[in-house]
Structures are given as C-alpha cells and as structure tokens.
C-alpha cells in the first residue's frame, strides 16, 4: 500500500518537473536564437558618440545601448571605404576574396547601372539566417550593386542575398543627390570637361589668329570639328548634371522604385517607421533587421525637429537625429517586451571623413577622437569604429573590451546564434564574438588582422597570444596633403598607389597598445625585437596572400561604368525617370 502511494506521489511530481524542464528548454532555445538588429551608421567617427568620449554631441540612446551591454574599444572595419567594408560585414570575409576591392582609384560604386556588385556565389549572414527560419530585412543603404546583365535580373540586389524585405537606396548618399550640395565629381569635371574645353577654346583662337594673319591656312572643317567637339562635351556635361540625380538617387521597396529622385524630407523618420513596422510584423518569429542609416555620409540632412539644434552644425544635427532613431527602436523593443531576447549591434562602416569640408568652409566630417587619419586610409582613424553589442539576457551590462575585433566577426557570431553551420567551401575571416562578450575568453581570436587599402595589402596587425602588445606594420602610407595635415584634402580622399603613397622598407612599425595615435614609429634602437616582429608579420602576410584565389574584379572598368541597359526608372515615367509613390501612398491613406 505504501509502495502504491509512493508511486502515485512520484507520478504526480513528474508533471511539474516536466513543465519546468520544457520551460527551461524554451528559455534556452530563445536565448540561443535571439532576434538580431544590426545598426550601421555611415562615416560616423569613433569620436562622435558620447560613450566614446564626445562631450558636446548628444547621443543619449547610443550611450544607453553601450551602458546596457558591451563597448568594444578596438573594433575595426575590414576596409576604410563603404562598399568593401559592407561586403566584408555581410560575408565575414576580406573583400579582396570576393573581388569587392578595387585596383584603381575609385573603390566604391558610383552608378546604380554598373554591373559590378556582391557576387551571387557569396553567402551573407542574411542568407544563413533566412535558411534557419528568420524573417530578414534591410532598411537603408545597400551599396553592393544591383544587376548583372539586364535591369531585371537584380543579381546583386538585397533580395538575392538573403533578405525578405528591402526598403532604401541601392547606391549611397552623395552630394550630387541633394541640390546645392556640390558634387563628388568635381575633379572629374575639371579633367574631362573644363580642361578639354579650355584647350579647344585656345586652339580655336590660335587657329583664327593665324588664319587672319595669313601665317597658316586652316580649313573650315577643322573649325567646325572643334566646335562640334566642344558642343558635344558641353552637352554631355549638362546631360550628366541633369540626369545623374534621378538615375542614381532613388528609393526602392523590394524591386520597385517608389521615389525617384529621393526626397530628404523626413527621410530618417521614414526609415525608422519601416524598421519599426518590420519588428511589429515579426513579434512571433525570430527576425534579422539590418538598419543601415544614410547618416552621416554627405550630403548631410536632418528634419526640422533637429536642424540647427546641435553644437556641431549640420553634421551634429544629423548625428543627433540618427541617435533619436536608435532610441525609437530601443523604446519599441521595450514596449513589445522583446529587449531581453534581442541582440543589438551598433557600428559604423568606417571612420569619419575628415576631408569633408563644404564650399563654404563648413566641416561636414566627424571626429575620429585621438586617432590619426580617417576614411579611405588605414591609420587608426580610418578603421577603428564604434562597436556596441547589447543582449540583456546573455551579455553583462557595462563592459568594455579592449581586444582587437572586426566587423567581419558579426557573420560567424549571428550564424552560430541562429544555429546555422558556417560554409565549409570558403575561408571565413571573422571570429565568433560570444566567448569575449560572455567573459569566457579574455583574448581575441584574431592573432593577425590584415588591413587593405582597396585591393592592396596596406598593413598587418599582430596581437601575440599571452601578450598585451599589438604590433601594426605599414607597408606603405598615404601622402597627406597639405603636408602636415591629417588627410588628403587635395584629392578629397587618400588613394592607394603610385605617387599618392610612400612605401616603407622596412615597414613602419607601431605598438598600438602603447601608441594608439601612431605618432612614434619604432626602430631597432627603440625596440630590440624590431626585425623579429617584422619577420613574423611578413610570414603571416605571405601565408594570408597564398589563400587568396583569383576572382573576377567587380571594379573593373567593364563592371564599374554606367550601362544604359541596366538603368532602372519608374514605370510609366518616360525619359524623365521621376515619380513619388511615397507621396501618392500617403495621400491615399488619408
């Protein structure tokens, strides 16, 4: 009898134990498959957010994110330029592996109708997570190409790289997209338009004078030919000025153009609403949201609620508007009770563009703090970017990690959290961040990091195991101009070859752990292991370059130049390529 009572008691106790077990399993499953929000600013300097030391720019929401999670102080972009950095971020691989690094001066796409872009055989973290049942969206800037052979194949489009939903721009924000903000093609105009027109003009005047003086008989055909050539150049120039904005600065929803040219009116608010609506649509399923702001790349813009409110002019207004948007997303997660189950990452694609100065002398670039250089070069100011991660259920709040990490690390980190195996047919250069973030490891998995200037191996960073030293060796450095300045102001960005750089033999060596400003290169007199360190770094560089297969160059002239048959236009807009379905939809919804 007693035995029967005991068995009955055990049977009754099994039920609550099973319930507890299933609850624990459900919580464990949630913790291992969080929602993921990846927020990327454009050209934001590490010295801009308050949590990285800025005392005058107001970024309370980015600071809130940092205080609630982990702040990485040596977080590095895989490239100091938009397109290659974003390719590395999406794939976890150095951009040179996918052909997304240029051998020429221009290292980013400038036309929507170029045929280059992120190759179809590349695997993004969005693709991996979509295969694991995640709902995926990209809101904002893409800048990794659009089509290959026809304007409807969309081979490089976000929806062909793992995203279920896309709302944003396929190219990038440019000064040419906003009337009155100047042009990124000023140098090109000078070389291809103004100088040739001047030469033609001087030639015509010279021939006319010689003809009048009887010193040389110049056939009328030559005069007409030169006049025709001048008219052709002028017509092409005026056509470029008229059509560049609508042909390259437009908003899309999935495959459809919804605003051409794009309007800057409440643009950040529109991106924020789209991001919020995506989150609200996916409260019951795991989701991946990549929120890729247009801020703070020029042309700078902000809504009337932020214009003129900061202490740093139009740049500060843009930063503070972006921070507001981050706050809206954080508040929504709290309202929906998703904050504990959501991993949020905030970063910038590269350092601030220090050469961004308007024609009026206004500073339109951000701050890289104490660090040298900026966008388009591999001094620390060009590649050391904000890196903040928050996941309240898993990551202890208020941490600061000084180990070298990369934006390529997001790929393996989110893949593992989603339960997706990493591709085995390619090298993944990123490393899983979770051991560092959870305190299970105190040392970065990156012993070596390779810093590329476009497709050229520019520098190598070595963080030896069981050492606090972080060695950085430069094979070449950009020639700043004017001499003594902190950038390449004559060319607007620094270039990677020829007379624009100085090669170093032996390489220029720094210990970043002691000299983060890179002011005092080491010598055999100041560092006894000088040649030994350089030998290890050179051997690592050699091993690395041996792993690089020959791949199609996405920035070849054939891929880079504008192709009219790839040009997208609003349906039924004729040759004007202008429409505003955003405004039409808003009217219909009233």
UniProtKB/TrEMBL annotation:
Q: Which residues form the signal peptide?
A: 1-28
User: What's the superkingdom here?
Assistant: Eukaryota
Domain annotation Sulfatase N-terminal: ranges: 34-420
List the GO cellular component terms: endoplasmic reticulum lumen
Q: Which Pfam families match?
A: Sulfatase, Sulfatase_C
Cofactor(s) it depends on: Ca(2+)
Instruction: Determine if Transmembrane helix is one of this entry's keywords.
Output: yes
Record key words, sorted: Calcium, Hydrolase, Membrane, Metal-binding, Signal, Transmembrane, Transmembrane helix
Q: Could you list the residue ranges that cross the membrane?
A: 192-216, 222-244
Respond yes or no to whether keyword Transmembrane is given for this record: yes
The record, for InterPro entries, names: Alkaline_phosphatase_core_sf (IPR017850), Sulfatase (IPR050738), Sulfatase_CS (IPR024607), Sulfatase_N (IPR000917)
A GO molecular-function term, please? metal ion binding
Concerning its family, UniProt says: Belongs to the sulfatase family.
Write the protein's name. Answer: Steroid sulfatase
UniProt gene name: STS
């Amino acid at each position: 009898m007693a035995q029967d009572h005991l068995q009955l008691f055990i049977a009754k106790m099994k039920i609550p134990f099973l319930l507890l077990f299933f609850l624990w399993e459900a919580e464990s499953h949630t913790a291992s498959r969080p929602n993921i929000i990846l927020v990327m600013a454009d050209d934001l300097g590490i010295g801009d957010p308050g949590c990285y030391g800025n005392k005058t720019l107001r970024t309370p929401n980015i600071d809130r994110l940092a205080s609630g999670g982990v702040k990485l102080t040596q977080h590095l972009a895989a490239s100091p330029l938009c397109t290659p950095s974003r390719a590395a971020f999406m794939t976890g691989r150095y951009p040179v592996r996918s052909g997304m690094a240029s051998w020429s001066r221009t290292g980013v796409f400038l036309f929507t109708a170029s045929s280059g872009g992120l190759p179809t055989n590349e695997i993004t973290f969005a693709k991996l997570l979509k295969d694991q049942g995640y709902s995926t969206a990209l809101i904002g800037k893409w800048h990794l190409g659009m089509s290959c052979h026809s304007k409807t194949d969309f081979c490089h489009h976000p929806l062909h790289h793992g995203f279920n939903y896309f709302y944003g721009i396929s190219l990038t924000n440019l000064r040419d997209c906003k009337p009155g903000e100047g042009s990124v093609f000023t140098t090109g105009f000078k070389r291809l338009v103004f100088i040739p027109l001047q030469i033609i003009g001087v030639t015509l005047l010279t021939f006319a004078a010689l003809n009048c003086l009887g010193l040389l008989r110049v056939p009328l055909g030559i005069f007409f030919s030169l006049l025709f050539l001048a008219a052709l150049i002028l017509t092409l120039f005026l056509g470029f000025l008229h059509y560049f904005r609508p042909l390259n600065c437009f908003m899309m929803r999935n495959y459809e153009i919804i605003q051409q040219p794009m309007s800057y009116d409440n643009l950040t608010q529109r991106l924020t609403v789209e991001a919020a609506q995506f989150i609200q649509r996916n409260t019951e399923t795991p989701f991946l949201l990549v929120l890729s702001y247009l801020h703070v790349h020029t042309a700078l813009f902000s809504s009337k609620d932020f214009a003129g409110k900061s202490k740093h002019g139009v740049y500060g207004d843009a930063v503070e508007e972006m921070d507001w948007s981050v706050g809206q997303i954080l508040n929504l997660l709290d309202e929906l009770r998703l904050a504990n189950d959501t991993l949020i990452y905030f970063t910038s694609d590269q350092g601030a563009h220090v050469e961004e100065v308007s024609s009026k002398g206004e500073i339109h670039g951000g701050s890289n703090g104490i660090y040298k250089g900026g966008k388009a070069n591999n001094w620390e100011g060009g590649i050391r970017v904000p890196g903040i991660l928050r996941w309240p259920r898993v990551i202890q709040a208020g941490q600061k990690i000084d180990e070298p990490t990369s934006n390529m690390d997001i790929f393996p980190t989110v893949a593992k959290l989603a339960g997706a195996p990493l591709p085995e047919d390619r090298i993944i250069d990123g490393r899983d961040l979770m051991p560092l973030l959870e305190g299970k490891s105190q040392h970065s998995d990156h012993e070596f990091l390779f810093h590329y200037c476009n497709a050229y191996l520019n520098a190598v960073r070595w963080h030896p195991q069981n050492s606090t030293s972080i060695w950085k060796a430069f094979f070449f450095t950009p020639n700043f101009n004017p001499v003594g300045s902190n950038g390449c102001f004559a060319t607007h960005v620094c270039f990677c070859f020829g007379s624009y750089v100085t090669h170093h033999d032996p390489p220029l060596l720094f210990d970043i752990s002691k000299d983060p400003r890179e002011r005092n290169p080491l010598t055999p007199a100041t560092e006894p292991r000088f040649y030994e360190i350089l030998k290890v770094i050179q051997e690592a560089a050699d091993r690395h370059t041996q792993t690089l297969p020959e791949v199609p160059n996405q920035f070849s002239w054939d891929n880079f130049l504008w192709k009219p048959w790839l040009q997208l236009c609003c349906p039924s807009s004729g040759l004007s390529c202008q429409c505003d379905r955003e405004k039409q939809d808003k009217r219909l919804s009233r």
